[in-house]
């Protein structure tokens, strides 16, 4: 956790601000140093909290994926790891089972599935093995059960049609890993400008310090002038 927190300080603008705080300390301008340090800590902490919450959400999401499942292969019922499932496998479902993949149902007996983790619907969804015509949203696909949802009542059996990243659950997972709000072209340009200005600032500071050193002036004085 601490490593992730410290990683926030790798931002070039943060490094530039820390350099300014250091100069303020060396020149005994402690109030300026404290103000800069507090501002940096606030920015870094907010960024860390946002990243931490995002990772926690992903962890909670992965808990919805069951480690094992009941699969029928070569006519025999087997207990397999969910990650070993492939499209075409036949999976048996019963009360309390967490569904290990996207499955098209072929046999159903009073099957009710809690899909709240995926669709947000509070009421359990009644499933059928009757083929459906056309396409619809997740709530209307009654002959398919989705990875990460829970069998609340009844039992069923079906053919795996999607696993891992190729499931609806996987799509949600990838969306959560992506940026919550994509950056606009202006924001991207501002980020690039910030990096370029930081590099330019460090170059100018270096040139000023080098010039002063060649002229026999004190390095601290030249560093202070360069940062200002």
Protein architecture, described:
The chain has 228 residues and is an alpha+beta fold. It folds into two domains: 1-63; 68-178, Distorted Sandwich (Calcium-transporting ATPase, cytoplasmic transduction domain A), CATH 2.70.150. The chain has seven helices and seven strands. Strands 1, 2, 3, 4, 5, 6 and 7 form a seven-stranded antiparallel beta sheet that branches. A hairpin with a 2-residue loop joins strand 1 and strand 2 (76-81). Helix 2 runs antiparallel to helix 3 (30-62). The longest helix has 33 residues, at 30-62.
Let me know the number of strands. Answer: 7
Task: Tell me the fraction of residues in β-strands, as a range.
Answer: 15-25%
* Count of structural domains: 2
Pick out the low-confidence regions: none
Shape, principal axes of CA atoms? rod-shaped
Number of helices: 7
Determine the CATH superfamily of the largest domain.
Answer: Calcium-transporting ATPase, cytoplasmic transduction domain A
Order of helices and strands: HHHEEEEHEEEHHH
CATH topology of the largest domain: Calcium-transporting ATPase, cytoplasmic transduction domain A
Radius of gyration: 29 Å
Report mean pLDDT, rounded to a whole number: 79
Portion of residues within helices: 40-55%
How does the major sheet shape up? 7 strands, antiparallel
At the first level of CATH, what is the class of the largest domain? Mainly Beta
């Amino acid at each position: 956790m601490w490593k992730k927190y410290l990683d926030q300080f790798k931002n070039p603008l943060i490094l530039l601000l820390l350099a300014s705080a250091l100069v303020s300390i060396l020149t005994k301008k402690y109030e300026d140093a404290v103000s800069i340090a507090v501002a940096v800590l606030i920015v870094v902490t907010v960024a860390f909290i946002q990243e931490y919450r995002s990772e926690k959400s992903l962890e909670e999401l992965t808990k919805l994926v069951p480690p094992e499942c009941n699969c029928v292969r070569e006519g025999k019922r087997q207990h397999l790891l969910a990650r070993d499932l492939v499209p075409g496998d036949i999976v048996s479902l019963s009360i309390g089972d967490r569904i290990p993949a996207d499955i098209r149902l072929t046999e159903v007996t009073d099957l009710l599935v809690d899909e709240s983790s995926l669709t947000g619907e509070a009421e359990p969804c009644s499933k059928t093995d009757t083929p459906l015509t056309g396409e619809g949203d997740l709530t209307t696909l009654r002959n398919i059960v989705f990875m990460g949802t829970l069998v609340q009542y009844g039992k069923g059996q079906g053919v795996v049609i999607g696993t891992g990243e190729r499931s609806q659950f996987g799509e949600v997972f990838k969306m959560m890993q992506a940026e919550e709000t994509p950056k606009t072209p202006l924001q991207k340009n501002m980020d690039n400008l910030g990096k370029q200005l930081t590099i330019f600032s460090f170059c100018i500071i270096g040139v000023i310090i080098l010039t002063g050193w060649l002229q026999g002036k004190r390095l601290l004085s030249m560093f202070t002038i360069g940062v200002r």
